[in-house]
Records
---
Amino acid sequence: MDFYQCRMMKIFCKIFCICLFLSALPACAQELKLEAVKWVEEDHEAVEKPNYDGNKKLCALLKVYVDDLPGVVFGSGFILHGGTDTYDGKCYRLYVSHGMYRMHVKHADYGVLPIDVKQDFGLRFQTGKTYHLFLRAVGPKPDKTTQTVVFNMMPPEGSIRVNGQTYSVNKGMLSVELDPGEHTFTAEASDFQSREGKLSVVKDPSQPMVVPVKLKPVLRWFEFTCNAKDAQLYVDRKHQGGVGAKQLPLGRHHIRVVADSWNDYSEYRVFKPGDKLHVEMRPKLYVPVTLSIKGSITGVFIDNKIIEGWVNNRPFKAKTGKHLITVTYGNLGSKDMVINVVPDMDVIEIDIR
């Protein structure tokens, strides 16, 4: 073998070794990529559902979009709730402190991605703003060994602790990945009783395991008072009866109060322990008035106008406020009386005998 043949043999050996090494690598590396970050001016969720950092400053909200990738963990000392938040199969929600721009994203199958939005996108996350981040998992998806478990919780806001790890519930839903086997959970929400439970998870790739969780409200006694003596109270459309002591759920609820001769009262209130439930109603413009007249009469007038169809001891409608009542009795004359018309007024007695 001459020198030229020997040299060519060495080159072919190197090429063969390189090809053999490359064939042992995966067809495509598994990694995470952040493709875009933008402030969405018309998205006001950071203000409508606020969170505050340790300095009592309003946080920014990050919505990190990535399809079908549970188990992503966000790391930074400026993320609330330890960096773990709701994932609905498409989006993670994170609240972060004002001015933050660095964090890392970690996934068991796709590794760690350091993020610096100041360097890569020229921005810092600002208080009260909502940002959309678009994350992509690159490479073949590994075989799934866990089962998707979806908690449907009522009320829609709160948290669920699964095997000791706490997750936030957003819009009544929480999706987590769990290994087959036995698991424990605790559901909690403000003004509701917490609930503990156990799960027996069986792997079924065709569909998620759905767990309904309904919490019972915390009840407290409130004294319902009103300036309308016949007032009737409704809380979240449920009739609670008239004035007096009521056992009602804590938190924000819709109340409605109705009464004869009074305009309906309606508003949302937040019930807290020790609060008083008092309602001031406004009278209707026209309310019933009853005259009981003793003696023989020829006519009954209000403000010098005859009361059409008036019947003794039966109510007629009169405008609230002060009025002149005049009762005539033939050739003998008349009798005047000034009355103040208000709701729920007593029968007015007039004696002309």
Note: The helical segments are 3-24, 45-48, 117-121.
---
Amino acid sequence: MAPAAGGTFQISGSSSTPVDIFFTLPAALGPNLGIGTWTGLSNTSNSSDSATALTVSAGPPTRTLGPSGKLHVWVGATLTTSGAAAGSYAVPVVLTVVYN
């Protein structure tokens, strides 16, 4: 699933504040439904079309909140199925923000 169609987060704080973004990412959605590579985007406006690539699986990326004090983040991943049962699957993706 592409980041723009995946999970979305909005970070708020004081304008132009740098933040470190930490992700806690699951390895699977369920039995026989593995999660591969995670990808992300970030933008100070709520538009994934003009967003910047964000590496979500390596170290905490640092971004700066926009003039409005907001940062938008989108995450997606590659799924691998191997005989997974049809249905809906959900697992938490945790985003932790440290203001610098």
Note: The chain has a mean pLDDT of 93.
---
Amino acid sequence: MLAEDNGYGKIAAFHKARLLHQSGDTDSAVKAYDNLSDDGSLPSALNALAELSAASLLVGSIPASELDERLQSLLRPDNAYRHSAREMAGLAYFLSEEYLTAREIYDMALSDNELPESLRARIIIMRGLVVDELLNNKS
């Protein structure tokens, strides 16, 4: 039995994607994660993890709307990664200086009663930065 035929091959594929990123080859790492996110033989939770991993490598390097589009399937209410995806989308809009959209995303995240406390704390901090930018840009 080849490693590709069992779980070890899939673990190795995740490891390879991480190593590609660490070596500076972000484009290849994103492609590797995209391949994993499309792999129908993986459990859906691992597909979602790969999708989130690819998106995380793209924050700040592609338009926020494009990243947001990549994250849409993760933002479903039943997806365990929705909180991280919202945080990532909010950060992308913040970095793009699209502060109103970032605030909307952060407000949506904060309204989710299932938002983990550690993420809640980070989102409150980021939302504060967004509000500061909105207030400073009014003058």
Note: DSSP finds seven helices and no strands in the chain.
---
Amino acid sequence: MSRTWRSKALQDATLEELASALTTQLNKDREASRQQMQALLSAEKLVEEKRQQLLEVERRIFAVVDSVDDVIELNVGGVHMTTARAVLCSATGSLLAGMFSGNFDAGHKRDKDGRIFLDVDPILFERILRHLRLRRIASPEQPAPLPHVPEDLRPEWEMMIKYFGLDTF
């Protein structure tokens, strides 16, 4: 019955009424299409932003992974030392590990030869470095020995250990 009624309504409608109805429907369809296009463009923009974020995360991950085996040249209180970045980063969660994680390389003070400059006692820092190296090759059966620090250097040693966040290692 509704089909017959529609046919009858179409037969009785004037051309102006039909044109007006078609124009109204066309405008509604255009608006719906415009809104769908806007939604698609917004979604596309969001996908592109997420893609860029993922690319940045990937770049940072590969920079860290690639830099773990970097050789780091240090100037510690005027004494030149060389070690692997992995050694300096082996005390996970420490300030020392954070300093050499690769995220802050541009922020380090450097000497005239480009070595990272640390203004700390080189004798004490060398003991830290030696201990971190030994920890990398130690085993439960043969743990890395704690560094021997003379009694007169102990207060400075403890300050340095605390500063670098190594007091829990």
Note: Residues 2-66 form one domain.
